[in-house]
Amino acid sequence: MPLFSRHALGALLLVAATAAHAQYVWIGPNGTRQYSDRPPPPGTPAGKILKAPGRPAMEPATSSQTSAEPAAGSQDAARPPTLAEQEAAFRERSKARAELEQKNQEDAERRKRLAEHCAAARETQASLNSGIRVARVGPDGEKTYMSDEEKAARSEQVRRALQECR
Predict the structure, then answer these.
(1) Pick the residue with more confidence: 59 or 145?
(2) Cα separation of 76 and 69, whole Å?
(3) Are 134 and 145 in contact (CB under 8 A)?
(4) What is the residue-averaged pLDDT of the chain?
(5) What is the DSSP string of 112-142?
(6) Among 21, 55, 58, 68, which residue has the fewest nearby CB atoms (within 10 Å)?
């Protein structure tokens, strides 16, 4: 076989191999680029297919682009975020997460205090409704017993406090 024929045959095989090794590129459901020699799964929107054999490569449309903004006019929207922008976004997410954790912790403490308050109010209500004489120790250390009027007033206070416990 002459040398020219071998080179022509080699070039022809190279061109055929390149066409046979067609690549598909699309944006997957989790937002990452997918590369394959097979077509994307059925149901993949045409706007998410970036490259297919016989079709020129496309840039993915960003969520900030609208039909009124062509891809050529918004280079800033198509560029990936810089390291500083990524760091700032990370710090914002970290701050928001810390604030949420603090709010949840304060909420849990508030619920715990309310539960303790409600338990004490129920115990006091049970003592007042038991029919036994209720004694108090005054500031001078002397023991005194509550009158029926005092018990009724205290029972009303406890009843109001227990309304918050439901």
Answers:
(1) 145
(2) 12
(3) yes
(4) 82
(5) HHHHHHHHHHHHHHHHHHS-SPPEEE-TTS-
(6) 68
